[in-house]
Amino acid sequence: MNVLLLKKIKKLGDIGQEVSVKAGYARNFLFPMKFALPMTKENIAIVEQKKQELLKIEKELKDQAIENQKQYENYELVFDVNIHEENKLFGSISLQNILDKLLADGMQVQKRDINMPFGPIKELSDNNIVTVSLHPEVKVTIPIKLNVVKTGNTEESSSKD
Questions:
Q1: CA 1, CA 125: separation in Å to the nearest integer?
Q2: Measured between alpha carbons, how far is residue 51 from residues 40, 56, 88, 148, 159 in Å?
C-alpha cells in the first residue's frame, strides 16, 4: 500500500514522501496516529500545500527536543539493588523500571522512546546504559549506576572443624 507521510518517521521516510508499507501497518498505526494519508490525487495536493507548514512544525519539534536534551546533561539513573553470588541481581532492571524512574525524576518521556541496547540488566556492571529518543534525529545516552544495598550471601559457613 502506498501512503504519503505527514511526519518524518525513522527508517521509513521524510515529510511528503511516498512510501510503500503493508496495509495493516498503515491501517493500524500510520493512519490513526495521523502520520500518513492514503495515496490519492486529493491527498497529494493537500500534502503539497501543507508541506511547508509540516516542515516548520517538524523543525519546531526538533528544536524542542534539542532544548529538552539539555536536561539530560550530567544525569544518571541510580538504582539500589540486591545481589547474590557472582554479581547477579535479584530480579532485573527492566524497561518499565527505567520509565518509572525517569517519570519520577520529572522527565517527559514515553515508553516507546526508551531503548536498552543490552537488554534488561541482570548483572552488576559499570557499562549499563539506556538511550532515549527525543526526536528521530535527537537521542541521549544515560548511564545507569547500581548501588548495592545488600548481598544474598551474608552468612559465612564456618563449619570447617
A1: 46
A2: 16, 9, 52, 53, 78
CATH entry 3.40.5.10 includes domain 2-68: yes
Return d(Cα 90, Cα 31) in angstroms, integer. Answer: 43
Burial environment of residue 147 by CB neighbours within 10 A (0 to 12, 13 to 18, 19 or more):
exposed
pLDDT digits (tens, 9 = 90+) for 55-95: 888 899 899 988 888 888 888 888 888 888 777 888 889 99
Domain with CATH 3.10.430.100 in the chain: 74-151
Instruction: Concatenate the DSSP letters of all residues of 77-127 into one string.
Output: EEEEEEEEGGGEEEEEE-HHHHHHHHHHTT----GGGEE-TT-SEEE--S-
- pTM over the 0.90 mark: no
Q: CATH for 74-151, among 3.50.50.60, 3.80.10.10, 3.10.430.100, 1.10.260.40?
A: 3.10.430.100
First to last CA, the chain: 77
Q: Where in the chain is the domain with CATH 3.40.5.10?
A: 2-68
